[in-house]
Design goal:
By secondary structure, this protein is α/β, with parallel strands linked by helices. It has two domains: 94 residues, Urease, subunit C, domain 1; 295 residues, Metal-dependent hydrolases (TIM Barrel, Alpha-Beta Barrel). The protein contains 13 helices and 15 strands. Strands 1, 2, 3, 4, 5, 14 and 15 form a seven-stranded mixed sheet that branches. The protein has a four-stranded parallel sheet with strand order 6-7-8-9. β11, α8 and β12 form a beta-alpha-beta unit. The longest helix is centred in the N-terminal third of the chain and has 17 residues. 46% of the residues are buried.
Length: 407
């Protein structure tokens, strides 16, 4: 029996890996794209989406879905980062497994509704891979590691269980959380595990000036926070434990994700640009929530660093809508053309998660899980016009097949 084909037509088809196709069609089978072409070359019946743009499914490169039950971020905009960390720790206390599963699944549904097809998730212990299965979204679960590299660290035992458990469609990774929460020895151990098992690592790095102050001078607000949590150990910091220490460790594995990177220096960016396996994940609205200094996005792009986009969590973001993230980014970096912005949320994210063979572009053989962008001002969508409407305040993004559930 021949495979049933569905042909979607829209005023714009945006393959990302190729130039935009005005008045284009995407031919899809049950699981894969069969063709992308101008509508004049198509002879099959179409589902006409009209004044819209068909795009690859979005890729959210960084989340913490355990906070998806929050209706608003923890604290107020501009909150001191260490104060916010204290609120995160308090929120995690006594989090039962049933509630955690509910919040994760709530977050996955929110991601799907905004056109996301793949996500990089930082998972805190206990990690239950079943919480992510059969969600309709590809999840790369990064097991979060915190604390010392000791036999009584419960996260290490949990990590072994995580590594040995059946994947069943879930991609695995490790996440030594951040320089202020992971001993150098545990970082080295994580790199060895990742190398042995062929896994990527995601790590929060250069997120705040306070983090750099801690690493470079062993002073600042983090000292008081770590003392309060009972985890302060001055031997964890020093000249050989600065940002370079962690960058070099991450470069030793095949794929490393630098989460945030808000305060990476020009010298560090130069070095990162020479490491083919390193990617940076920018979380625009979380960056705004903490009122950080201007993000060095253009400096990264000028160096051809692969920059992906993530929503982070509802602990620092009003929602998990990656398209809203891209819209905000486009207002902050108006020099970027719409296709550059779209690439950040599609192909760049897929590359960061090692999923570029399935997602990120519209081309033959890739996933048929697509998304569609519409404008509440349809008159702005013109096949002979520009694409400036894509990330306007009037545009929304949805999974394409949600508009036609019979397909």
């Amino acid at each position: 029996m021949s495979e049933q084909l569905t042909v979607y037509r829209a005023d714009w088809v945006l393959p990302v890996g190729q130039p935009p196709v005005p008045d284009g069609v995407v031919v899809v089978g049950e699981n894969a794209i069969k063709d992308v072409m101008p509508s004049r070359n198509n002879t099959l019946p179409i589902i006409d989406l009209g004044r819209a743009a068909i795009i690859p499914g979005l890729v959210n490169a960084h989340t913490h879905l355990e906070f998806s039950d929050l209706d608003a971020p923890l604290g107020q905009p501009g909150i001191e980062f260490t104060e916010w960390i204290s609120k995160v720790v308090q929120h995690r206390v006594g989090d039962p497994a049933a509630r955690k599963k509910f919040t994760i699944q709530r977050g996955l549904i929110e991601l799907i509704q905004s056109g996301v097809v793949a996500v990089g998730e930082i998972a805190s212990t206990p990690v239950e891979l079943d919480d992510y299965r059969d969600s309709g979204i590809d999840v790369q679960v990064f097991y979060e590691l915190l604390g010392p590299n000791t036999s009584d660290n419960p996260r290490l035992a949990g990590c072994q269980t995580f590594l040995s458990s059946p994947s069943s469609g879930i991609s695995k990774g490790l996440s030594p959380h951040a320089p202020y929460s992971v001993s150098s020895e545990l970082m080295n151990h994580a790199v060895q595990l990742a190398d042995t098992h062929g896994l990527p690592i995601a790590m929060h790095l250069a997120e705040t000036p306070q983090e750099r102050e801690l690493l470079e001078h062993q002073s600042g607000p983090f000292v008081g926070l770590l003392q309060h949590l009972g985890t302060w150990n001055p031997n964890n910091f020093g000249e050989d434990r600065q940002s370079w220490h962690y960058l070099e460790r991450l470069s030793q594995i095949s794929r490393g994700l630098l989460i945030h990177g808000n305060y990476l220096t020009g010298k560090e960016l130069d070095w990162i640009s020479q490491q083919a396996g390193l990617h940076v994940v920018y979380c625009p609205r979380t960056h705004r929530f903490f009122e950080h200094a201007s993000y060095p996005l253009q400096a990264m792009l000028d160096r051809s660093i692969n920059v992906a986009v993530g929503t982070d969590s509802r602990a620092s973001n009003p929602n998990l809508n990656l398209f809203e993230e891209l819209k905000f980014l486009s207002t902050q970096f108006s020099q970027l053309d719409p296709m550059q912005v779209l690439r950040l949320g599609t192909l760049n994210g897929a590359s960061a998660l090692g999923m570029e063979q399935r997602y990120g572009t519209l081309e033959k053989g890739k996933s048929s899980r697509l998304a569609v962008i519409r404008s509440n001002q349809p008159s702005s969508v013109n096949v002979s016009g520009s694409l400036d409407w894509l990330f306007s305040t009037h545009s929304t993004c949805h999974p394409l097949r949600s508009e036609h559930p019979s397909h």
